[in-house]
Amino acid sequence: MLRPMFYNYTFLISSIAPRPIGSVSTISSDGKHNLAPFSYFQVVDHDPPVFVIGFSGRAERPKDTLRNLKETGECTFNIVSEDILEAVNVTSVDAPYGVSEWALSGLTKADSTTVKAPRVRESVVSIEGRLCEIVDYNTSRKPVGAHGALAVIEATRFWVAESAVDENAVMLS
Ligand SMILES: Cc1cc2nc3c(=O)[nH]c(=O)nc-3n(C[C@H](O)[C@H](O)[C@H](O)COP(=O)(O)O)c2cc1C
User: Fold this and answer.
1) What tens digit of pLDDT does each residue of 66-124 get?
2) How far apart are CA 131 and CA 125, in angstroms?
3) HSE (CB half, 13 Å, CA atoms) of 94?
4) Which of 30, 47, 131, 146 could be bridged to 73 by S-S, CB 3.0 to 4.6 A?
5) How far apart are CA 126 and CA 157, in angstroms?
6) Which family would the database say this protein is a member of (predicted)?
7) Does the C-beta of 92 come closer than 6 Å to ligand 1?
8) Chain Cα centroid distance, residue 9
9) Whose CA is nearest to atom 24 of ligand 1?
10) What ligand 1 atom has the least distance to the C-alpha of 67?
11) Mean of the per-residue pLDDT values for the chain?
12) How confident is the model at residue 171 (pLDDT cuts 50, 70, 90)?
C-alpha cells in the first residue's frame, strides 16, 4: 500500500529544513504573468550558476510555472525574506491559468534585462534565468498517478538590493 501523500509531505517539509523559498516569476507564450513560491528550489552549481525547481506531481494539470517555463524558457527567482513572506504566500493560491498572482499579492514588478519575466522589486536578491532542461522523473509512479518534474535553469543575471551590499566585503578574485 502506498504511504499517503500527506504523510510524506508533512514529514519531508519538516525534516528537510531549512529550505529557501524562491518566488518564481514567469510569462506564458501569450504574455500572461505568473508568480508562485517554490521551496523545492536550490542552487546546484556556480560556474555557470545553475538552479533547480522541483514541481510536485499534478500530471493532469501541470502548474502554470512549469507550463510557462516549457513555453518561453525564461524566469526570475526572487529570494524571499521575512518582510515579504505573507505577500509571497498569497501567490501560492491556485489561481486559474492566466490570472496573475501579482495583483493579489501587492508585490511590484521590476524590469529584467536578459529575460522578459519581471523581477519582484521588494526582493533583496533576484536572479534571471533560462531553462536548460526539464527532467520528468522516471519513478515507480510513472506513467500513472502522481509524478513530478525538475526544471534546470542557468542564471543569466543577478540583482542585489543596494541595502544588502556590504561595502567592506572583500571580493575574492
Ligand atoms: C511556501 C510554499 C512553498 C511551495 N513550494 C512548492 C514546490 O517547491 N513545488 C511545488 O510544486 N509547489 C510548491 N508550492 C505550491 C505552489 O506554490 C502552488 O501549487 C502554486 O499554486 C503554483 O502556482 P502556479 O500554478 O501559478 O505555478 C509551494 C507553496 C508554498 C506556500
Assistant:
1) 999 999 999 999 999 999 999 999 999 988 777 789 999 999 999 999 999 999 999 99
2) 19
3) 4
4) 131
5) 8
6) Belongs to the flavoredoxin family.
7) yes
8) 18
9) 64
10) 27
11) 91
12) low
Q: Residue 29, SS3? A: coil
Ligand 1 centroid – CA 63 distance (Å): 8
* Distance from the alpha carbon of residue 6 to the mean position of ligand 1, in angstroms: 15
Q: Determine if ligand 1 sits within 6 Å of the CB of residue 34.
A: yes
Residue identifier of the C-alpha nearest atom 16 of ligand 1: 92
User: Domain 19-161's class?
Assistant: mainly beta
CB-based burial, 102-114: b 16+ in 10 Å, e otherwise: beebebebbebee
Cα separation of 123 and 36, whole Å? 14
Percent of the residues in the chain that have a pLDDT greater than 90, as a whole number: 76
Q: Where are the domains of the chain?
A: 19-161
- Cross-strand bridge partners of residue 51: 43, 153
